[in-house]
Design goal:
- The chain has 114 residues and is mainly α.
- Helix content is 65%, strand content 0%.
- It is built from seven helices and no strands.
- The chain is globular and about 40 Å long.
Length: 114
């Protein structure tokens, strides 16, 4: 995966969203923001969460390209199976990168709350 925008493009295609206007209105952003995101541009945490909820896709998949677009729908009771699916193809470098991204997101979310 080149960047997370590649996954976003795939999700928009799967969800059959060709025009960005309706999605932009629903997310409260300008259409150009969605185009920027498709190029891997930065996105705020609240917009990331709203985007994934609106498209019904996994945040993990969107950010890393690992696992399934719909892995967030796995039954919560089967966490071992979910972990196997989520981490089946992930390398140590991918895990380190993901951990760093999540740490930054946590810092930003904490700063927003305070």
């Amino acid at each position: 995966m080149d960047h997370w925008g590649t996954c976003l493009k795939a999700a928009l295609q799967v969800r059959q969203i060709g025009k960005h206007y309706a999605l932009a209105v629903e997310l409260g952003v300008h259409e150009s923001a969605i185009s920027r995101w498709q190029q891997g541009g930065s996105i705020s945490v609240p917009h990331l969460v709203a985007l994934c909820q609106t498209l019904d896709i996994s945040i993990d998949w969107l950010l890393t390209g690992q696992g399934s677009m719909t892995q967030h729908k796995l039954p919560a009771a089967d966490t071992a199976a979910a972990a196997r699916i989520l981490f089946q193809d992930i390398t140590l470098q991918d895990m380190a990168t993901t951990a760093n991204v999540l740490a930054v997101l946590l810092e930003r979310m904490t700063a927003i709350e305070h």
